[in-house]
Write a structure and sequence with these properties.
This protein is α/β, with parallel strands linked by helices and 336 residues long. 49% of the residues lie in helices and 12% in strands.
């Protein structure tokens, strides 16, 4: 059976207007909860600050959820949203997400990007019951996370290249076959992301609202076709590989990994780096947050990494990343 999920209900409102009567399991982080706790009054039965989306960790949290909990609230970014969706799904109770920044599209998706055996494995949980957006909270988030979900739209530029690359070599599965009409719509979404980047970087509500709209359309399309190939390729594989090599003591912000990944994927395909690099920087995405040696070492292992984990076919499957080629990628992208 194929399920085509809808978006969660979106409520754009002041958090002071939220009235919750159900017993709440609250998942949040210190900074996030500090930003909204004076605004959001919840009957909290249990509160936690999750640190991982590793599948064993998620199962441990789910087994410890008190029986009186009736709803799971996520207040913060993508990690707490994924954990909340998983816990709610495991207990068959609703999930409500309160983003403190538009940092990922995972707030709106029906899946959780769980980690297992050094890679990402999607768990279909269904969407949250609702997502509550308070623009006064979003626009006052730190610059590097406030509109960081724009990377989810800009990954379309490299995702489409890899999807078409696989199609030209007859490497897509039937389910993930290349569909020109999908590629056309997704390319238009990416084009709009270029146009709103400056406003997103400035924290303009109009641009942030456009970002929200584009994210919702992108999520609905990928849900409609049943896969994420139009926006997930070599750029995301770089992020997965980088994350798998790093210490798990402290999570690396998603955009800090995917932003450089987009530049690297663009370079793999021989495309012009300059427009997308300036767009990322204008939107507030940090491209210099990762250690240069770690970027280099991650690039070196990418072909082996995608084959080991059976990731969907991309240009990485055919690359011979010699030392000279890696040095060239670092030079072209300006990451070195």
């Amino acid at each position: 059976m194929t399920t085509i999920w809808s978006l969660p209900k979106l409520e754009i409102t002041d958090l002071t207007s939220v009235h919750e009567s159900r017993a709440v399991a609250l998942l949040t982080g210190g900074r996030s909860w500090g930003a909204v706790s004076p605004l959001l009054d919840l009957p909290v039965a249990v509160q936690a600050e999750p640190t991982s989306v590793n599948i064993d960790y998620l199962e441990s949290l789910a087994s410890g959820l008190p029986p009186q909990v009736e709803v799971v609230y996520a207040v913060g970014g993508g990690l707490v949203a994924d954990v909340a969706k998983y816990l709610a799904w495991s207990r068959a109770i609703p999930c409500v997400i309160v983003p403190t920044a538009l940092s990922v599209d995972g707030f709106f998706t029906p899946i959780v990007a769980a980690r297992s055996s050094g890679s990402v494995h999607y768990v279909e949980t269904g969407p949250a019951e609702s997502v509550i957006i308070d623009w006064s909270v979003i626009r006052n988030a730190p610059l590097n996370v406030r509109g960081a979900a724009i990377v989810e739209l800009l990954t379309i530029t490299t995702g489409l290249l890899d999807w078409r690359y696989a199609a030209e070599r007859n490497k897509n599965t039937r389910q993930e076959r290349y569909q020109p009409w999908v590629a056309g719509i997704m390319a238009s979404i990416a084009q709009q992301a270029f146009k709103i980047a400056e406003g997103v970087g400035k924290g303009e509500v109009e641009a942030l609202r456009s970002l929200l709209d584009l994210l919702c359309i992108e999520v609905q399309i990928t849900s409609q076709i049943g896969h994420t190939r139009p926006q997930e390729g070599s750029e995301q594989y770089f992020a997965y590989a980088y994350e798998s090599r790093r210490s798990r003591d402290k999570a690396t912000p998603y955009a800090d990994m995917v932003g450089p990944g987009i530049l690297i994927g663009t370079a793999f395909h021989g495309q012009n780096i300059a427009p997308i690099k300036s767009t990322l920087e204008t939107a507030g995405i940090r491209l210099n947050a990762l250690p240069v040696t770690e970027i280099t070492n991650t690039i070196k292992i990418l072909p082996d990494y995608v084959r080991k984990h059976g990731l969907p076919y991309s240009i990485l499957n055919d690359l011979d990343l010699t030392t000279e080629r890696v040095e060239e990628i670092m030079r072209v992208t300006g990451l070195g």
